[in-house]
Amino acid sequence: MHIGFLTPEYPLNNTRVGGLGTYIRKTALELHKRGHKVSVFWESIHNAKLNDDGITIYEIKCPPLYYALNSQSLLKQLIRVSYVLYSALKLRNKVFQVHKEHELDIIQSPNYLAPGFFLKQNNQIPLISRVSSYAPLYHAAFGIPRSFGDYLIDYLELRQVMSAEFKFSPSHFMQRVYFRYENCDLNFIPTPIEIHKSIKTDNSLAEKISRQFPPKQYLLYFGSLSRIKGVDLMADVVNQLSPKYPNLGFVFIGIDYGLPNGKPISEFILKSCSKHKKKILFFPYQQHKVLYPVIKNSLGVVAPSRVDNYPNTCLEAQSLGVPVIGTTDSSIDEIIIDGKTGFIAENSSPISIASKIAKLLKMSKKERLEMRKNIDQNISDILSEDRIKILTDYYEKVVKEFKKQHKRAKGGVY
Questions:
Q1: Global pTM?
Q2: Structural domains of the chain, with CATH
Q3: What pLDDT is stored for residue 11 in this prediction?
Q4: What is the mean pLDDT of the chain?
């Protein structure tokens, strides 16, 4: 099959991206390995055609999608909405241009920022909408009232999902959210897991951290530093645990998106934990080759999300044999088996998170070895599912259904 992915982000040339870009690249690479032709249509800052280990990347120059984010100016909000629409239109035009030269069998679009808005219900190429978020829930978790522009963009995202003939979510949590709030049934297709067995690592950051915190004497958070991810809750967690465990360190790695008041989360945590700030380290976004040794050396990874959708960070930590402390009602409880491969705390509760971390700290060497075996077994079970095959089987089912629903058009185009 020739499979197309639409995306507002992609991890190329050290580009800093979130879970969406990471997911697309790892999925595209695996599909390519299995003999499929993969094209990625990227809302970028310039026009280019590149090859990324066999994946064809079409960079399409688009206006800044995050223009005047959180601005109170109605004009700027409307400009940002127009940028989102214009970018989706440019992607549509590029997709059909490529389709004429190299026929696409299927296209997958995230709901985030609605890049597939102008491709929904087209009669040429089946469009699948992969649902990774529900904007009203995420805005509430971030703690900022939605602007008029936010409402409009949220509407575009929702219309893309609701109008798409085919849609799925990688988590049961998001399935339930859409059914509850929008009466929308989503298929469930689990996220493929990536194992970096042969990645060439860079130990520079791990060595720097080890000069302050020896291996297995620090907890790690990595990913976006935001209220949605519950990182602000870690201030109370640090204050609860540090007096009892004076040798325990806390390491945070990722882009700091700040709090609703505009202050960086790093500043908030350091100020709130002034008595224990020597036990806290912050580092910016790191590439996987630098990040993986830091994960391996950690005692555990903390994922205190208020809302999430089967996050790659948890899968990556578990694939490296590291226990994860996650939260209920966030989809992380679909990855972590409480008490077996990590611990699940109550959502938005620093007391519960600290309590679960304390359980990890109190485990004996034998218990930790047993948890490591459980983690390895769980990852082995996930890998045995062959999630890429599940995805391609779904693609084939969609293509067949699409052909049934759309009569063959003149010229042999569907």
A1: 0.90
A2: 2-190+386-412 (3.40.50.2000), 204-383 (3.40.50.2000)
A3: 92
A4: 94
